[in-house]
Design goal:
The chain is an alpha+beta fold. The chain is built from 8 helices and 13 strands. The protein has a 5-stranded antiparallel β-sheet with strand order 11-10-9-12-13. It is globular and about 60 Å long. The protein starts with a strand and ends in a 16-residue tail after the last helix. The relative contact order is 0.17.
């Protein structure tokens, strides 16, 4: 099989470990969408593509590959859906998922001018990307500070969910679920990227089913879901990510290698996310 990684960083730990598992018997190559001119020859496409980048150029390339019959994990439509937090919330809530209530403001400047929102709230960039805005706002001074730094940034506003200061990070690769606890980036003292791995039996009852339902609704095969315990074990979804890093999770490279080969062999099925045709 020919497996192609669509990424600028093929040495990412998850991708590198997956490549090491595949290369004894299969051909693994990589392509940085940002460094290519035009699209590849449709007559020489790989058996499967792993989309580990979410830039507009990468999504355009993924759509081209799909139009010419190549399977892409995750699809361009599903990946793009997770980039717009407004649409993400609309799709999730419409499907009955316990997603945090979300409203959209055209800019932080407009949000500040509209008057002080009920506090505390969480303000995030509408369009998810590296180094985007995610901040807790407890008073007008904090909102003014953010508006001065990000005046024209389109944002979503969500009520702050009281919690322990720890995010439950759940990741799915095909049929496998991995989980961990990580300090929230909104916690006092700032974020801590270290993750404590959780065994499946340590998860509250019903949470794996919620996370699998996310995959069904968004037609994702490799994804992450950030959940908070809202009290009594009830989860609140605060974010969904297509093809996250899933670092340090034993078994994750094996699951990704198996999924890639299964999809390349035709074991995957084309899926369309619920919100793929939603107007943006």
């Amino acid at each position: 099989m020919r497996i192609c990684l669509l990424t600028p960083t093929p040495d990412h730990p998850l991708l590198a470990a997956t490549t090491a598992l595949l290369t004894p018997r299969h051909e693994v190559e990589w392509l940085d969408p940002a460094a290519t001119d035009g699209f590849p020859d449709p007559g020489g496409l790989a058996d499967v593509y792993l989309l580990k980048t979410r830039t507009p150029r990468a999504l355009a390339l993924a759509r081209f590959l799909e139009e010419h019959g190549a399977p892409v994990l995750n699809s361009a439509a599903s990946t793009g859906l997770c980039q717009d937090r407004t649409v993400m919330a609309e799709v999730a809530l419409r499907a009955g998922l316990p997603f945090v209530p979300t409203r959209t403001e055209p800019s932080l400047r407009r949000l500040e001018a509209a008057g002080e929102p009920a506090h505390p709230v969480v303000v995030k960039s509408r369009h998810s990307r590296r180094h985007d805005l995610v901040a807790r706002v407890d008073d007008a001074a904090r909102l003014r500070e953010l508006a001065e730094r990000w005046p024209d940034e389109p944002v979503v506003v969500q009520p702050f969910t009281p919690n322990s200061g720890w995010d439950h990070k759940l990741w799915v690769i095909g049929d496998e679920i991995f989980a961990g606890l990580r300090r929230s980036e909104l916690a006092v003292g700032g974020p801590d990227k270290r993750t404590r791995t959780l065994a499946p039996e340590e998860l509250p009852a019903g949470w794996p089913e919620v996370v699998r339902r996310v995959g069904e609704v968004f037609a994702l095969d490799v994804y992450g879901v950030d959940l908070l315990d809202a009290g009594g074990g009830a989860p609140v979804i605060v974010d969904i990510n297509a093809f996250p890093g899933i670092r340090g999770q034993a078994g994750a490279p094996e699951a990704l290698a198996a999924l890639a080969l299964r999809t390349a062999a035709g074991g995957g099925r084309p899926r369309v996310p619920v919100g793929s045709s939603h107007g943006r």
